[in-house]
Amino acid sequence: MRAALSGESPAELLEQAGTGLREQARRVLGVTEIEERVDKTTGAVDGTGSLRDRGTELLERSADVAAEDDAHPSYDRILTQLAPDEARVLRLLATEGAQPAVDVRTWRPLDVGSQIVAPGLTMISAHAGCRHAERLPAYLNNLFRLGLVWFSREPLEDPAAYQVLEAQPDVLGAVRRAGRARTVRRSIRLTPFGLDFCETCLPLTTAEFDVLQGEEPAG
């Protein structure tokens, strides 16, 4: 109607109306305020510092030979993402070393068409004293996600550890289900990152644990 009365172009009026509506919406949503806080040079929001500045600070700290190295900054966050049983698993791996694991597979000539029946069977839950043994697969997956453990294809050097594991009821049951079966020996280990985490964050000896609990060390 305005275009018809004034002789202005309808297209121009629609474009002006659209621009006005967009600006109003930006003000309502606070977009304009946020954009004003953005540093046009670095692209960083005021108060946080630019990513490049933070990277430069890290390099300067790494070059300072007099600076004391703190624990890895992610350790605090990792502790909030661990279940109590997972701490027990880590302590076992840190104190006793890598643990045996086996996969039970169906036997086929030349392994063609072989199928896995039960993967990653271990005695870690029993040895670590986990309260919820049925959750061990989820525990190990979480520890792997955090970069603390890895599932190695390399078996342990001691075959006796596998003989004990392969005599356990869950392994024998998987072998019976498979009919003709074979076991694949593997191991579960701490990563170097996981070992440092354990040495930094967990009491690894009974005496140290007692001291942290305010008890007198035994013996």
List keywords for this structure.
13% strand; four-stranded antiparallel β-sheet; single chain; 219 residues; alpha+beta
Report what the structure shows.
The protein has a 4-stranded antiparallel β-sheet with strand order 2-1-4-3, sandwiched between helices. The longest helix is centred in the N-terminal third of the chain and has 20 residues, at 10-29. The chain is extended, with a radius of gyration of 30 Å. The chain is α+β, with helices and mostly antiparallel strands and 219 residues long. The protein has 12 helices and 4 strands, in the order ααααααββααβααβαα.
Blueprint of the fold:
Elements: H1 2-6, H2 10-29, H3 31-37, H4 51-63, H5 75-79, H6 84-96, E1 99-106, E2 116-121, H7 124-128, H8 136-145, E3 149-152, H9 159-166, H10 169-178, E4 181-190, H11 192-201, H12 206-212
Summarize the structure.
By secondary structure, the protein is of the alpha+beta class. The protein contains twelve helices and four strands.
